[in-house]
C-alpha cells in the first residue's frame, strides 16, 4: 500500500527518513489506500508525478508562460525550467500549488562546488522549491567520492534550510552499474531527496532497468526521478512500476490527454433504449 506520509509532491524530508526494506513500494503522491495501478489511472495521481519540463536553450518567455499555464491547469508537481526563468515561473505560478524546479550545474555537472552553491542560493531566493543538480560525473568516475558527497551534502543542507528539496542527477548513461549504485549511495547519505536518471542532454535518457536498479540501491530512503525520453503514458507507467515516483518530461500534456482517452475507452457504454414510445437511452 502507499504511504500517506509521503511528501505531497513525492519528495522525502530528510528529518523523516528511516531505513526500509528495498521491497517496499515507492511512495506516491496520492492516498495510501490506492494501489499503484489505481494511482496510474487517476488524473490527479498521474499529474502529481510530473515535473513539466522546458529546458531547451531556445525556450522563450512565451514558452515558459505556456508550460506554467499547463501546469496550473493539470496540477503537475512542478515546472522545471532553466535558472534564468525561475523568477518568471514563480510569479506565473503564484497561488497554484505547483512548485518551481530548476537545474544546477546543468547539463554537465563539471562546475566547482562553490559555483553550484551560488547558483542554488540565487534560485532559492527567486522562488525555486526544487533543485535538480547534476553530480560531478567525472569526479565520481575518477574515484573522488568525497568531493561528490560533500558537494551534494552542501546543496542538500542549503535546500532544506529554505524548505526546498534536492534531486541529484546521475547521468546514468555515462556510468557502469557499480558506479550507478555508488552514486545512489553517496546521494542518499549526503541527504538528497531524490536520485534522478538523466539530464536529457546526454547520449541516452531513462531506462526501466536503471530505474529499477536505483530503487533497489536506495530502498525507500529517497525518491527516484526518471527523466529523458519519457513521452507516453505507457512509458510513464513502466517507469513508476519499476520504482520511480517522479517523472521529468516535456510531454506532460500529451500524457494527460492519453490518460483522458484511456478513461473514456473504459467508460461503460449506454444500454440500448427500449423500443417503446418515449424511451430514453440508459446512461448508467
How would you describe this protein?
The chain has one domain: Aldolase class I (TIM Barrel, Alpha-Beta Barrel). Helix 5 runs parallel beside helix 7 and helix 8 crosses helix 9. The N terminus and C terminus are likely disordered. The protein is globular, with a radius of gyration of 20 Å. It is α/β, with parallel strands linked by helices. Strand 2, helix 4 and strand 3 form a beta-alpha-beta unit. The chain has an 8-stranded parallel β-barrel, surrounded by 7 helices.
Cα separation of the termini: 31 Å
Shape: globular
Total number of helices: 11
CATH topology: TIM Barrel
**Could you say what the CATH architecture is?**
Alpha-Beta Barrel
Low-confidence stretches: 1-25, 279-284
Radius of gyration: 20 Å
What structural class should be given to the helix and strand makeup?
alpha/beta
How many distinct domains?
Answer: 1
Largest sheet: 8 strands, parallel, barrel
Query: What is the beta-strand fraction?
Result: 5-15%
Give the SSE string. Answer: HHEHEHEHEHHEHEHEHEH
Read across the widest sheet, the strand sequence of neighbours is 1-2-3-4-5-6-7-8
Write down how many β-strands occur, each being a DSSP E stretch of 2 or more residues: 8
In the CATH scheme, the class would be Alpha Beta
Let me know the CATH homologous superfamily.
Answer: Aldolase class I
Helix content: 40-55%
How would you state the average pLDDT, rounded? Answer: 88
Amino acid at each position: 500500500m502507499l504511504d500517506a506520509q509521503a511528501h505531497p509532491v513525492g519528495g522525502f524530508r530528510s528529518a523523516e527518513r528511516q531505513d526500509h526494506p528495498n521491497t517496499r513500494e515507492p511512495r506516491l503522491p496520492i492516498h495510501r489506500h490506492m494501489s499503484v495501478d489505481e494511482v496510474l489511472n487517476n488524473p490527479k495521481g498521474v499529474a502529481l508525478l510530473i515535473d513539466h519540463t522546458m529546458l531547451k536553450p531556445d525556450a522563450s518567455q512565451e514558452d515558459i508562460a505556456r508550460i506554467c499555464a499547463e501546469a496550473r491547469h493539470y496540477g503537475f508537481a512542478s515546472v522545471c525550467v532553466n535558472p534564468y526563468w525561475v523568477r518568471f515561473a514563480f510569479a506565473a505560478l503564484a497561488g497554484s500549488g505547483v512548485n518551481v524546479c530548476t537545474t544546477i550545474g546543468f547539463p554537465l555537472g563539471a562546475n566547482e562546488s562553490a559555483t553550484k552553491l551560488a547558483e542554488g542560493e540565487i534560485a532559492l531566493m527567486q522562488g525555486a522549491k526544487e533543485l535538480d543538480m547534476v553530480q560531478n560525473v567525472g569526479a565520481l568516475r575518477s574515484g573522488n567520492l568525497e568531493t561528490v558527497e560533500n558537494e551534494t551534502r552542501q546543496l542538500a543542507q542549503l535546500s532544506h534550510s529554505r524548505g526546498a528539496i534536492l534531486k541529484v542527477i546521475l547521468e546514468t548513461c555515462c556510468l557502469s552499474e557499480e558506479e550507478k549504485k555508488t552514486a545512489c549511495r553517496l546521494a542518499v547519505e549526503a541527504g538528497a531527496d531524490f536520485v534522478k536518471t538523466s539530464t536529457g542532454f546526454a547520449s541516452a535518457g531513462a531506462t526501466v532497468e536503471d530505474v529499477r536498479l536505483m530503487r533497489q540501491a536506495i530502498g525507500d530512503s529517497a525518491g527516484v526521478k526518471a527523466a529523458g525520453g519519457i513521452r507516453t503514458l505507457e512509458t510513464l507507467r513502466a517507469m513508476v512500476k519499476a520504482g520511480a515516483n517522479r517523472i521529468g518530461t516535456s510531454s506532460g500534456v500529451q500524457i494527460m490527454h492519453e490518460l483522458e482517452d484511456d478513461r473514456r475507452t473504459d467508460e461503460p457504454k449506454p444500454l440500448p433504449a427500449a423500443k417503446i414510445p418515449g424511451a430514453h437511452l440508459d446512461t448508467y
